[in-house]
Specification:
This protein is 47% helix and 9% strand. The chain is built from 15 helices and nine strands.
């Protein structure tokens, strides 16, 4: 066959609608494959040998932390999906803890991680901070605990009533909205929880890229939020707050000014709810109260007495605060943690942990 004939046949084939559609489909598939591989790489977020979960955004390359908060477009939090759906290793680390701290953001802001880790080494115990920011009640955490059957030797509950009672049975949510709200998270099945975490991480990566590469006037329009970034430690639950300017302020933050009447007894209703809560999570519970503007020792002491539980309440409230008395700053957290740990060492329920560990096992006959 002559070259002229071959060229004529080829021209006829390539001009047919079927071949055109085939070539378009092939090109589209190739482009989709490239984009899919790029998206997968973005979603994975790091070496598979290091990541805790798909899309994890580490803290400066440290995969012991995951990015937990973002607010470029709206306030979004990651740990609720991670804890409720046991994504990654966070729940497994909590399962290994001797002591678990429960409460909302005051518990996350109130403790100095370095002192907690030193205390762990001193006494041979593990402490996990399971505070959940934005929760006005402990109901979401109660569901996490009962879903995964966590059984530490000691629960320490921050029994405050700031914005809502910790022992309330409603999913009170003061911090988040949309897919990150507690009420939405508990409706997710685990598969949807995984997808939500991956999509959120991917969105945060894209937002961070845009914020870093676009001119400031454009960023202010596309991403109007402050872009606050917080990370959470997978092994201990500690929140990394050192990129919050007010939290780090060493000289200007005032001490907490308690504005509440100290004649503030516990009601029969909250005592009843506290009994139900403690019975639901099982084990041994102690109560604490992280200082804030609405600090009220009387009600917590009365609840603890009704429960027959130990209680840790600091003798002072003059700890510095990052936000006018709602949360402690770094210096306040360091001072409070030192006082808290001294009291914890003397607590009968903590001493029981030490004694049970040190007691020699009885050999079988």
């Amino acid at each position: 066959m002559s070259q002229i004939a071959r060229a004529s046949i080829w021209t006829g084939l390539t001009s047919s609608p079927a071949i055109t559609r085939y070539l378009s489909t092939l090109i589209s598939a190739a482009i989709a494959t490239v984009l899919g591989l790029a998206a997968l790489s973005l979603a994975i977020g790091g070496p598979l040998s290091k990541i805790d979960h798909l899309g994890q955004i580490p803290l400066d390359g440290d995969y012991g932390f995951y990015r937990n908060y973002g607010d470029w477009m709206s306030r979004e939090i990651q740990d609720r999906d991670i804890l409720y759906n046991a994504i990654g290793q966070s729940i497994e680390h909590a399962r290994q803890a001797d002591i678990i701290l429960l409460g909302h953001s005051m518990v996350l802001w109130g403790f100095d991680p370095a002192q907690l880790r030193t205390f762990e080494r001193k006494h041979g115990v593990k402490i996990y901070n399971m505070g959940s920011a934005g929760d006005a009640s402990g109901e979401f955490l109660r569901r996490v605990v009962t879903r995964w059957q966590l059984k530490p030797k000691l629960w320490i509950l921050n029994a405050d009533d700031k914005d809502g009672n910790f022992f309330d049975v409603k999913l009170e949510d003061q911090g988040m909205s949309g897919s990150g709200s507690a009420a939405q998270v508990v409706r997710h099945n685990r598969l949807k929880g995984y997808f939500t975490v991956v999509i959120r991480n991917t969105r945060w990566r894209i937002q961070q890229y845009l914020a870093s590469h676009l001119p400031a006037p454009i960023v202010s329009v596309l991403l109007p939020g402050p872009g606050l970034q917080l990370w959470r430690n997978i092994g201990s639950g500690d929140l990394y707050l050192d990129r919050m300017p007010h939290y780090l302020d060493d000289t200007h933050n005032p001490s907490i000014d308690v504005k509440r009447d100290q004649n503030c007894p516990a009601s029969a209703d909250e005592i009843g709810k506290a009994k139900t809560f403690v019975a639901s999570i099982g084990g041994t519970s102690a109560l604490m109260l992280v200082p804030y503007w609405g600090f009220c020792p009387l009600r917590v002491q009365q609840i603890a007495q009704s429960l027959g539980a130990d209680v840790i309440i600091p003798a002072k409230t003059a700890y510095t605060s990052a936000d006018g008395g709602g949360h402690l700053d770094r210096d306040g957290a360091r001072a409070f943690t030192a006082d808290f740990l001294k009291d914890l060492e003397r607590l009968p329920s903590f001493q029981a942990i030490i004694q049970s560990r040190d007691r020699p096992s009885r050999s079988s006959d």
